[in-house]
Design a protein that fits this description.
This protein is of the alpha/beta class and 144 residues long. It is built from four helices and five strands. It has a five-stranded mixed β-sheet, with helices on one face.
Length: 144
């Protein structure tokens, strides 16, 4: 006598599941999503070293030069043929007062901002903005 496997268990036939269980895949995808969202948040650049550029135009003959160096060291002077030696200033307020005085003495001179490669980009941009607020229309960046 031959017995089938279904007859041994009370006569019920076993039905196969033809569905895919996606719950484990959803769990894995959520973990990967959290990892990909958390990793880039730790990589925030603080200082960008900008490359030097070729000269695109000849610099003006005379200009007011503002130098921004790392660790907030600031200096100002007049460059070109009417050269006034660069003088260090204590802080940003003193620099802006000196810039205003030099601009009143020489209203037709453009302002060149020489930002050191290791100085903060925000410091240079704020100086450009402050110079424009003073009414200086010709503000540029000095490069090597």
């Amino acid at each position: 006598m031959a017995f089938s496997s279904s007859s041994l268990r009370g006569g019920r036939k076993r039905k196969f599941k033809s569905e895919i269980n996606v719950v484990p895949y959803i769990d894995v995808m959520l973990v990967l999503l959290i990892i990909f969202m958390a990793v880039p948040a730790n990589e925030v650049p603080s200082v960008v070293n900008l490359p030097s550029a070729e000269k695109s135009a000849l610099p003006p003959d005379t200009y007011i030069q503002v130098s921004v160096q790392p660790e907030n060291r600031l200096s100002i002077g007049v460059g070109g043929k009417d050269r006034v030696p660069m003088e260090d200033v204590a802080d940003r307020t003193a620099l802006l007062e000196r810039l205003r005085a030099l601009h009143e003495e020489h209203p037709d001179y453009p302002v060149l901002i020489a930002g050191d490669r290791d100085s903060k980009y925000n410091d240079v941009i704020q100086l450009i903005s402050d110079a424009r607020k003073m009414g200086i229309s010709r503000v540029g960046l000095a490069t090597k």
